[in-house]
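Predict structure. Chain length: 182.
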Amino acid sequence: MQISKNLNDQELMKLCQQGDTDCFTELYVRYNKPVFNTILRLVTDFAQAQDLLQEAFIALYQEIIKGRQIEHFGNFSRRVAANKAISFLRQNKRTLVFEDCRENVVEEEAEDEDLFEMKVEGIKKAIDSLPEGFRTIVNLYVMDGLPQIEIAELLGISHATVRTQYHRAKKKILSLVQKEMA
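Prediction complete.
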């Protein structure tokens, strides 16, 4: 059967539940790149990210077949991918280190925000150089757009810790970018 590119995700999932595996192939084609990028940002090993990508899509297929109501397949698929990557890190004893701080975080001034928006490649390099815990939070919050409360639940830490770690990671990124510019 020829799958129409005009079908939306909901229609594809419904047809998939009825046994049309070509529809799932279309969902894979639409979302494999962003899902892979989510995994790769967390795991940082290309081959392992490919394996986890397959595991994530197997889990997604199983959820669709079970009849789970998935409102936004793209968002849901990235969340499943993040869960797979974090589970992999935990299973391989690559612990994510978070400082449990309950201090108030003061928002940065506007001039710091302007610096933060400069030099995308420098920022990517700075993010890659962060400790794994900081990098995980930055990637989930900035790159994947997960709310901080959801990140806290996903990682099993407090919302205050996520907020603090994000704030510190942002300061570290700013510092690294400023050094690179100097």
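Summary: The two ends are 59 Å apart (CA to CA).
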